[in-house]
Specification:
Blueprint (H helix, E strand, L loop, with lengths): L1 H24 L4 H11 L2 H5 L2 E9 L2 E6 H14 L2 E11 L5 E9 L3 E11 L2 E11 L1
Parallel strand pairs: 1-6
Antiparallel strand pairs: 1-2, 3-4, 4-5, 5-6
């Protein structure tokens, strides 16, 4: 009886620790919130998910920027190329805790493939790379 109780307690503890870490690294709706920010062309909402440094690739420019600089670059991009739509085509994760989103960004003048890489920072997923590239 004692061993059964210990086994049940151990299994329950492992389950709770696994569930807690999953919740801490990916808040509910993270991918949806990022997609909504891009779809709305809202650089401020998007920047809430940026890490301290973000690699940005846009048509005609690229580099690694601070969170504040990255927000301004995305604001400029969204004002010059306002979104008509943004569709998430694929999302996934790696064993190391990184996650990605692949999508399609449509504006009046062009359609761009979007690649977003998020990595855990202080037990929270943050955007480390965001690429908008032509087909």
């Amino acid at each position: 009886m004692k061993n059964t109780f210990r086994l049940i307690t151990f299994c329950l503890s492992v389950f709770l620790m696994t569930s807690t870490s999953a919740i801490a690294t990916e808040p509910p709706g993270l991918n949806e919130n990022i997609a909504a920010a891009i779809k709305a062309g809202n650089s401020k909402e998007l920047a809430a998910f940026f890490g301290s440094t973000v690699e940005i690739i846009l048509p005609g420019s690229d580099g690694a920027f601070s969170k504040a600089q990255a927000e301004m670059i995305m604001k400029n991009f969204f004002s010059k190329t306002p979104p008509l739509s943004f569709t998430v085509n694929q999302k996934g994760n790696s064993a190391g805790g990184a996650q990605f989103i692949i999508g399609t960004y449509k504006s009046k003048s062009e359609t761009l493939n979007v690649y977003i890489l998020m990595k855990p920072v202080s037990n929270q997923l943050m955007i480390q790379q965001i690429h908008f590239e032509a087909d």
